[in-house]
Amino acid sequence: MSVDLSVNLGGLLLANPVMVASGTFGYGTEYADLVDLSSLGALVTKAVTLESREGNPPPRICETPAGMLNAIGLQNPGLEAFVADKLPTLAAPGVPVIVNVAGASLEEYVAVAERLSAHASVAALELNISCPNVAEGGMHYGVCPQSTRDLVAAVRSVSRLPLIVKLSPNVTAIQPIAQAAVEAGADVLSVTNTLLGMAIDVERQCPVLANVTGGLSGPAIRPVAVRLVWEVFRAVRVPIIGLGGIMTARDALEFILAGATAVAVGTASFVNPRTVGEVLCGLRAYCEESGVTRLADLVGAAHPS
Amino acid sequence: MITSISARVERREQVTPVHVLLRVHAPEIAADAQPGQFVHLRASEAYDPLLRRPFSVMRTEAATGALDLLIQVVGRGSRLVADAVTGATFDLLGPLGVGFPLPPPGTPVSLVAGGVGVAPLIFLAEALSSAASPYEITGLFGARTAEFLCCWTEFAGRCTRFTAVTEDGSTGQQGLVTDFLAQHLAAQASRRVLPTVYACGPLPMLAAVAHLCSEHEVTAFVSLERWMGCGVGACLGCVVPSARAEGPRYVRVCKDGPVFLAGDLDWQAMPE
Ligand SMILES: Cc1cc2nc3c(=O)[nH]c(=O)nc-3n(C[C@H](O)[C@H](O)[C@H](O)COP(=O)(O)OP(=O)(O)OC[C@H]3O[C@@H](n4cnc5c(N)ncnc54)[C@H](O)[C@@H]3O)c2cc1C
Ligand SMILES: Cc1cc2nc3c(=O)[nH]c(=O)nc-3n(C[C@H](O)[C@H](O)[C@H](O)COP(=O)(O)O)c2cc1C
Ligand code: FES
């Protein structure tokens, strides 16, 4: 039995639904020896800002039970260097490149989005309005429906690319923010970014991360992320990219059944670089075993009809 | 080329109460690994501890595909690795990072090891002593007590001249290994060709080595340790501050290092 794994993300067609998450796969080349890059559903880059950012001082990461905290702080070479040095080597034939965009101001998001939209090798933009690790990392946009609406509308007006908005889990109610993003023109929503957290070194009696707080990722956050996808699915009618702690195909299926059209593997690539491939194989096997011919038919299937 | 393999433990030797020497079968990695490079090892299939642990390559045997790791137990991950039984397997990524560049033939070299930092220097000493024109190698090995001077005979055996130093004087000279490096560099100052220094050990030791070598205008390569996420340069989690005018402010220990030219790092801004 052949299974149709292709998905349509707001006009962006993917051969399969398993992507890699922003900031966890570098610019692809880092994993070229280990992962068949042409098998990725899509590659999402580390956040790009207008000017280069040096990022936060170290220590930037710390392991936690079944997870990790990171406070990288959007280190990146800046838009022009990204376009000149990174973009040309990013793309594997046939694999869409999605560029994660961050900024300190609405104008910065717009400038980066406008410049990238002119570039043929960029398949879609993912607006990071949810980075918890820099004072001006965009999270303040993502925790308020009105500022989400303004930002997404401003970017929408300069770009015709499929527009993905990556939501923050650090909110009391995600549905109003998801609705605001869609009303302002988002084609797809990514759910979720990292959960704000921190760890304290009890010997030295001080925070472990130089930035004090960081973003929690890994299997520890999966139940929270699945719940958020479930809620967003009930609130909007656009495709969702589900992510947060996916380690196996079964984890990915939880997201799909909760309402995700595609999934992204993040922290799991650090633990096992083969995860993306294993998730894809496992999804195919699940469909075959359960007689499902189109994976898309499973999207949201856990919701009462 | 980086490979990911399931490596079988072929031999386990308890070298001291807190050090274990593991020989694993990892032909693809053993064939490529250079002194100073490391492997990223998954200590458990469970989700806790979640992340891999980095360990230096201590020795390879291309003919048999053997790769030796020297593990000091400091926490949960290293405990899991050290407790492995023969026949167990570990998921290994490697070889990773940039190793020690070999000096031009004829350069005297000084190897400065602190504690378990001796592991990559044993590999380097082996490469230097078996080079077409062997090097004059001065080995300095420091540790808290005699117990932490782990595998010192293997290190000493590759050196032309060797000094062991313990903080409590339980073996060898008493003091800090960097005191003896200072003496050694002062004695070398009048030589026509100045030595090149290679060091691996705890951060305060490396900072002292960097300082001494810059005073004596001697080239020094240091191998650093940081917590790691990916180990392959993708996550930007393992960075240290760079002192170079060009390039990024923070450089990755896993990809740009772990071996750095001491003068390329900003020791003032170095985290603990
Ligand atoms: C390139 C490289 C090569 C290394 N080579 C060797 C080697 O050959 N042999 C060896 O025994 N060890 C080596 N290490 C160190 C080894 O990776 C750590 O000791 C190990 O990851 C600790 O894991 P754990 O779970 O046992 O300790 P944890 O329970 O995670 O921590 C125990 C204690 O060690 C500290 N710690 C943990 N990891 C690090 C780290 N990476 N840097 C500084 N402090 C840390 C923690 O703060 C804590 O106090 C190397 C590290 C790097 C980066
Ligand atoms: C080291 C690291 C860096 C990250 N950088 C970014 C980033 O630049 N932009 C972004 O939108 N998300 C970033 N994220 C968040 C991930 O893309 C993902 O949303 C999150 O880690 C949850 O998924 P996971 O549990 O599978 O890792 C980063 C996560 C990690 C662990
Ligand atoms: S550990 Fe990920 S960049 Fe070094």
Describe this structure as you would to a colleague.
- The complex is a heterodimer of chains A (305) and B (272).
- Chain A has 305 residues and is of the alpha/beta class.
- Chain A has one domain (7-55, 73-195, 217-298): Alpha-Beta Barrel (TIM Barrel), CATH 3.20.20.70.
- Chain A has helices at 79-90, 106-117, 139-142, 145-156, 175-183, 222-235, 249-258, 268-271, 275-289, and strands at 7-9, 12-14, 18-20, 42-44, 61-64, 67-70, 97-101, 124-128, 163-166, 188-191, 195-197, 200-201, 206-207, 214-217, 240-243, 262-265.
- In chain A, the strands form 4 sheets. An 8-stranded parallel β-barrel of chain A has the order 3-4-7-8-9-10-15-16, surrounded by 5 helices. In chain A, strands 5-6-14-11 form a 4-stranded antiparallel sheet, with no helix packed on it. A two-stranded antiparallel sheet of chain A has the order 1-2.
- The longest helix of chain A is centred in the last third of the chain and has 15 residues, at 275-289.
- Chain B has 2 domains: 3-96, Elongation Factor Tu (Ef-tu), domain 3 (Beta Barrel), CATH 2.40.30; 109-225, 3-Layer(aba) Sandwich (Rossmann fold).
- Chain B contains 6 helices and 16 strands.
- In chain B, strand 14 (239-241) and strand 15 (250-252) form a beta hairpin.
- The two termini of chain B are 32 Å apart.
- The chains are: A alpha/beta (305), B alpha/beta (272).
- At the A-B interface, strand 5, strand 6 and helix 8 of A face strand 14 of B.
- Flavin-adenine dinucleotide (FAD) binds next to strand 4, strand 6 and helix 2 of chain B.
- FE2/S2 (inorganic) cluster binds at residues 228-231, 233-238, 252, 254-255 of chain B.
Distance between the ends of chain B: 32 Å
Shape summary of chain B? globular
CATH domain class of chain A: Alpha Beta
Q: What is the structural class of chain B?
A: alpha/beta
Helix content of chain A: 25-40%
